[in-house]
């Protein structure tokens, strides 16, 4: 799983604490994909940025397909 975004220096420490808390709630290890996706989605939500969201690979693929189709319709 890849989480790609940029944090300001002030948010980096908060993000590290959130990651640690998430792992502690999971007992130190997240083994199932669905649990990892749920944890990542919850963590991204703590950023409070309406433009940032967590997408599963399938959601990202569907969004890419939708954008490609929209470009075709625009041409």
The structure class reads mainly alpha
Instruction: Based on Cα principal axes, name the global outline.
Output: flat
Give, in order, the helices and strands. Answer: HHH
Let me know the average pLDDT: 80
Q: State the end-to-end distance.
A: 34 Å
Please indicate the count of domains. 1
User: What integer value in Å does the Rg equal?
Assistant: 15 Å
H/I helix tally? 3
Number of strands: 0
Strand content: under 5%
List segments where confidence is low: pLDDT < 50 over at least 5 consecutive residues: none
Largest beta-sheet details: none
Tell me roughly what share of residues is in helical segments.
Answer: 55-70%
How would you describe the overall organization of this protein?
The chain has helices at 9-25, 33-45, 57-74. With 75 residues, the protein is mainly α. It has one domain. The N and C termini lie far apart (34 Å).
